[in-house]
Specification:
6 strands
């Protein structure tokens, strides 16, 4: 099935973007003010878009879909927009991140999304089968928008475990990797961010089956996001979260301390031309 077949142009009788937005907002029990607060825009803008008096942007649509738990409903109504199938976690996980006070992640192959530079993220996403330039740009924009959690007044504590091979894999080439590793070093200077590297010579660890992220929040259940070859899975079941948390702890015991990890990132970055 082609992308155009998967997301055909809406027929004339299809509800407008504004009608769908208002219906979804009402179903979620949110006022225009409340939705505006969530997506960082004014009540008047929400109203203008709902009444069809303001053209919605792609970034606005990304934020609203996340806030309302939609799955491409609004993207399909954007003019001249064709997107690949939107995974379920697209609408669910960013909301979990935004409400988290603690995020712990393990990544055996690549740098975690919240720590990726724009060019590194683009190189990762361009490797997706069937990816179009438009989809790549929108996916990059979504990923970078998620990183705004670190700019909150009360940013979450972020604990990242990276396998050493995530530093060695030359994603995007030498210049992209140098920039990415420099960014990791800059992020380690923030008091709420910890990056630790699990060395290759450890051999087998409890993390070889794939990456995952744990998010803890006040007022909502803890969640886990599991990476997979197909699409990510978000789970809030207590037992599943507990099992993944134990796996994180098992991996963590093999990680270098933060200061040693930083030195290792510097050494790898030097190989890419960092001075």
């Amino acid at each position: 099935m082609t992308l155009d077949e998967q997301f055909p142009p809406p027929p004339p009788e299809t509800p407008t973007y504004g009608v769908v937005l208002k219906s979804a907002r009402t179903a979620a029990g949110l006022s225009q003010v409340a939705l505006g607060n969530i997506v960082s825009c004014s009540e008047s803008l929400i109203g203008l878009v709902e009444r069809g008096q303001r053209k919605p942007t792609k970034s606005f649509t990304i934020a609203v879909e996340s806030a309302l738990g939609l799955n491409g409903d609004l993207f399909r109504l954007l003019p001249n927009t064709r997107v690949m199938s939107v995974p379920k976690w697209f609408s669910e996980w960013p909301t979990v991140e935004e409400n988290a006070h603690t995020i712990r992640t393990w990544q055996p192959l690549v740098v975690p999304g919240l720590l990726q530079t724009e060019r590194y993220a683009r190189a990762i996403l361009a490797a997706e089968p069937g990816a179009t330039e438009q989809w790549i740009e929108e996916a990059v924009e979504t990923r970078l928008r998620r990183q705004s959690v670190f700019e909150r007044n009360d940013p979450p504590m972020y604990w990242a475990l990276l396998d050493e091979c995530a530093l060695l894999r030359p994603v995007g080439g030498k210049d992209v990797m140098r920039e990415q590793l420099e960014h990791l070093l800059a992020m380690t200077e923030r008091p709420n961010i910890s990056i630790q590297v699990v060395p290759l010579d450890v051999g087998a660890t409890a993390g070889l089956l794939g990456g995952f992220t744990l998010a803890e929040s006040d007022g909502m259940p803890d969640h886990v996001y599991l990476d997979s070859a197909g699409q990510g899975t978000v789970i809030a079941r207590e037992e599943a979260v507990r099992q993944v948390s134990l796996r994180y702890d098992a991996i963590h015991k093999w990680a270098h301390p933060a200061h040693v990890s930083r030195r290792q990132v510097c050494e790898v970055a030097a190989g890419y031309g960092f001075q």
